[in-house]
Structures are given as structure tokens and as C-alpha cells.
Amino acid sequence: MRPSWDTFWTNDSLIETMLAPLAPSAVQRQFLQGLTPVDAPAIGLELSSRGLRRRPHIAVWLLSGRLQRWSALLQPLVRADGTFASGLAVEDLQPFIQSQDLFDRETWLEYTQPLRRQGGQPFLLFRHTRRPLRLDELRHQLEALHGRLGSRLQQRLPLPSDAWWQALQQIPQAGADQLGIDLDPLQGGWRFLFGVTDPQALLAALGFEPPLGAGLEAFPLALALDSRRVVADRYCLEVFPRYRQDHTIIGYPGEIPADVDQWPAWTPHPALIPPARLKALMQATVHVPSVAYSSQQLALRGGLSHQKLVVEEGQLVDHKAYLGVMVTAAKATQAASVAAPEGAREGSPVDHAIQWLSQAADGWLGFALSPGHSDQWVPLACLTLLAQWRDEPQLMAAYARQREALEPLLQAPQPVGYSRLTPADLDSSIWLRRCLLSLQRPSSASLDRFLASGWSRDVGISTYSDPQLIAAFIERQPAEMTGWCAPHDCVLINWAADPSMPKSGAALQHLRDRLNEGRFRSYWWPLDGLILSLMPRGSLPRSVVQGCLQQSLPPAVERVLPPLYAERFQALNRGLLLMRHGTIAEQQQGNALMATLIRRPEDFRDLLVMQLPQPDQLDPDADVQWLWKGRMEGSLAPDPEGYLAAALFLATQVRSK
Q1: pLDDT tens for residues 20-35?
Q2: Which of 33, 162, 177, 400 is the most exposed, fewest CB within 10 Å of its CB?
């Protein structure tokens, strides 16, 4: 018999330290601790502000779809005759828990009522859809699933009304990620969780406004709905920590961040969990990189997964916090199953990107300007973009080689530039700071001072804060550096794209101001979509995404750029933008576009094209005479290596939830 969760959840364990303050009952403890990680790799408790003096809810992530196994797992809680929820049996659930065409393998089981031994309490079941479903697809699939249920369950789970669907059509959302059933005999119904790609538009449509909603658009959100209530009557906002913009819980490199900066700073409200209690939940964490389990080595990680805001008739009525812990394979073996994107297949663009990066014997260099290849800016960007892929078996060796090549810089951080030969610049140094964060390495006073020198909250971030050194390097006068030393939106994005960067919130707000005012311009790249694809999903207004999709090359660039290069560069920009910020259908278009663009690993070569304005040129779209394949200012420069393009592509492949 395999060991159960009580192997890990002991009285002196990190799990006990995290979950004991939520005061689970003896029955709840015994049920959760009696499960095995093989059957239930994740367990958790949910605290409600309405029920601070009550027992928490419990949730379990079950892998099996076999009815016999479900009967055994639920045996302590169902009635002696095997029934629950006023007469239901496990067999009644078969169409839902064994549906494989619509859902991923796993099922979430949630008990919201106090548990009693053999009490037969009702529960909720949730399953992740295999891909986000548009409303028309969701309705069709829901009706088909409802038709497969038995008559007793059909009566208990009526389909949503036409009014429910019509109300939902007015709400910006990115498709259904989860579908659930509530088996309560008196108020059973369907539950839905919708992804969100435009938080600002969603919050505006819901009327969830400041002060409580202030700054909420900067966090990953999801919208939870109940089929019994139209959205105007009741909805839940699920709020996730900042790191979930770029990582799954499993895929996050290292210990999950457990600090208040990962979460919104709530305006006081009587329906919220008390601030001191909530702060303690935010700081709870479980991180055990390797622990013996039978003949395996597993990893444990956990903490505050998400918060829920329950709104009824426009008023916040409840606030919930879910803390969970999960086991995964130890890092050396888990990456292949975790990091590979859904739908990846042999010969796909993902495979080609991994193969291209893995065969780089001399490191992830980039471009070929007059100082030579970039051996700092591009490699640091690649290390940062690929942090969530670093345990992918095919990439591990190449990632380690590149990290070792930069180890002196990582151990003693200092301002860096395009290469070891060039003066330091802000963009390269931001990549270094982000790389240190992704690798959980400390920064240095000199690096932080340099970054602060180029940052101005009301103006932006320049590439070069001091004209003297770069002027001397390119043999120009400092007075000619006005363009290169001006604020650059593409550098601002590099800072704003990482929520863990200092002052990232202020950078994000300044970026949004620039976008809203129509003043955004990418200085070093001919198209804005490339650099905007660095921003986390959901951080850009829909209008910005649509504008970038319609953007064309500046006339001066189009005159010089050979048609084949222009076509491929525009396709890359469009593909990255669609995959990062597009709707469900647009993401599919982006994947199809990349599949056409990348048929071999070497197709990443020459995809990226950088523009190098004259140092006094302030407007990157000015009508100037570019030099194709030049190596210095006034040139359009393709990247013959292709590693940065491959890294940018792989960075869009991480699913946030």
C-alpha cells in the first residue's frame, strides 16, 4: 500500500504550519491525510470571511476516473448505503467524471459543508476544459453533457436560462476554462470559470470600480459564475498572485513567492478577511524541493493559491482565500510533463525552438553589429525568457552552459551593455535584473543605482542615461546623443513586463498612460507587437492589441527591407502578439501562423530585425534612409543567430492557469 498524505502532513511539518491556522476539523484532517498523493496530488483548505468562526472548506485534486476508485475514496464520507446528496450514487457521476473529449484528466472535489463521518453531504466537482471554450461552443458542449446525465441528475442540474446566456454575452471574457457541478439537492447547478484577457474591460463591464477595484487590473483574474444566478445578480472574481501572469504553480522556478507584494492592497471593507489574518495567509508557504516517497523523489510546494471576491447585486458580500499544497515529481524529472505546452508534437515550432536552442555550442549569442555578437544583452534576455523551460530535458544542458558562461556576472552583478565591449545600457541591465530575479539571485547596489539613474516616473526609461560613454564609444559628440538618451517605450516595457521588478506598478501605469494617449512607439524595433508580446497576458487593453495587429511597417523601413524578410518579420510579430494577447480563436491563428513560419529549427535565423536610429533621431518612424544589414547607427540589422527569436516564441507558450 502506498503511503498517504500523513507521511508529509505531520505535526511538525510545513504543511501543518500553513494549514493549522485555518482550524480544519478532525474529520477533515483524517480524510485529507488518508488520501495518497498518487490518487490526490493536491489538497487544500478555503477560508471565508463569512465563516471565520466555522470550519474551512476542503478541496482535493483527484486523478482517477474509475468509479470503483471514487467509491473507495469517498467511502468515509458517504452514507452506509453508498449514497450522498439525498440519494445520489457514484454511478450517477459517471458521464461527468469519465468525459474525456471535453476535459483534462483530473477532477477537483470540493466540500463546502461541515463533514461528518458517513454523513453523505453534497459536494462540488470541477474539471478543466481541454482548451478555453467560446460561449457558443460551451453552450453546445453543456447541452450535450447534460443529455448524457441520468434523469435524476438532469433534474437537479437544469441548464442555464436564455437570459443567463444573454447576460453573459455582454461580459468580456476569454472562454470557459473550468466547468463544474454543484450537487446540493436544494440548489444544485452548473459552475463556470472564465479566463480573462482584458481585466480593465471586465471590471468596467461588471461595475467593479475603485476604491476596492483600484489596481486590480494588474493581477491575473478569472470570472466564476453560477448557472442559477445571472451575472448582474451574482459573480465571483478569482484573483491570482502576480507570478501567475507568467508561470503555473508547478512550473514556477524555485520557491513560490509568499509576500504581500504578490497581491492587491485591498481598501478596507467589512466583507474582507481582516488584514492581519490575510497577511499571514499570504506569507504561508511550503517548499520542499525533494522528499522520499516509496522509491520516488517528490517535491512539495504550496501557499496561498488565489483569493475570491463574491459580489451579489453589486455589493461585495464575501471574501475567500484558498491555501493548498501539491506534490510533483522532483524537478529533474517533472519538466517534460509540466513545461511542454498543450498540443506540442514532434516537428512542431516548439520542438524546433527547443532543438535550435539546445544545439548552440557557443551560447545564445545574437545579432552581429560593429562590436560583434551580443554576448550579454541577448544571452541575459534568453536566460530570463527561458527560466520556466530550464528543466526541459532537451534544454537543460544548453541553459546550464549559458548560465555558467555568465556566472561571474550573476555572482557580482553590475551594469551591462550589448556586449562586454560596449558601455552599459538600461535595457541590457534590466534583463540582468530580471534574470537574477528568475534565478532567485540577489542584485547589487551598483546595478540598482544604475537602473535608478535611468528611471523617471513621469517621463519613462532611457536606453542610455549618460551620453558621455556611448558618445565616446561610437566617436560622436555627447550633444548628438539626444535620441539614444531619450525615454524609450520598448525599454519601459522590459521593466513593466516583470511584476517582481522594483516599481513595476509605476512602470506599468506609465506604459498604460502612453498607450491610452496614443504616444507609444518602439524605438529599437520597427513594429510594436514584438515588444508588447513581452507583457503578461491580460495586461493590455483589447484596443491596443487590435491596433498592433493592424500596424504596418514604417514607409522608410518598408522601402529598404527585402520583401521576404519583411514578410517573415511581420508574421513573427503577429504570431507572438496573437499567442500572448489574442482571443481563443486568435491564439489558434497565432499557432497556425507559427507552424507555417517555422518548419525547421534554422527558420528562427534572420526572423528578428532591429533598427538602429541615428543617435540624434528622436522619432523612430522618421522618413530616413536606412542601410539594410548595416552594423552601426542608421541600419536595419537582422539577427543571424535566431536564439532570441526562439526564446521569445517559447516564452509565449506558458499557460498562466
Answers
A1: 999 999 999 999 999 9
A2: 162
Q: Is the pLDDT of residue 246 over 80?
A: no
Residue of 527, 544, 532, 522 whose CA lies nearest to 607: 527
The H-or-E segment that residue 639 falls in is none
- CB–CB of 279/367 below 8 Å? no
Asked if 373 and 419 touch (Cβ cutoff 8 Å), the reply is yes
Rounded CA gap, 109 and 128, in Å? Answer: 12
**Cβ neighbours of residue 497 closer than 8 Å, sequence gap 6 or more:** 534, 535, 536
Residue 388, all three cell numbers: 520556466
The answer, yes or no, to whether the previous bond of 211 is cis (omega within 30 of 0) is yes
Please state, in angstroms and rounded to a whole number, the distance separating the CA atoms of residues 124 and 147.
19
For residue 309, list its beta bridge partners: 237, 319
Instruction: Assess contact for 454 and 423: CB atoms under 8 A.
Output: no
Q: How far apart are CA 171 and CA 206, in angstroms?
A: 7
Compute the average pLDDT of residues 39-43: 91
DSSP 553: -
Give, for 191, the enclosing helix (H) or strand (E).
strand 189-195
H-type alpha helices, 193-330:
199-206, 275-282
How far from 122 is each of 60, 90, 116, 217, 351, CA to CA, in Å?
Answer: 15, 12, 11, 35, 45
Please write the tens of the pLDDT for every residue from 587-642: 888 888 998 899 899 999 999 999 999 999 999 888 789 999 988 999 999 999 99
- Helical H runs in 368-457? 377-385, 396-405, 407-411, 426-438, 445-453
Nearest to 325 by CA among 298, 302, 299, 293: 302
Q: Is 603 helix (H, G, I), strand (E, B) or coil?
A: helix
3-state secondary structure of 325: strand
Cell numbers given for 122:
453534497
Residue 387 pLDDT > 80, yes or no?
Answer: yes
Q: Are 588 and 623 in contact (CB under 8 A)?
A: no
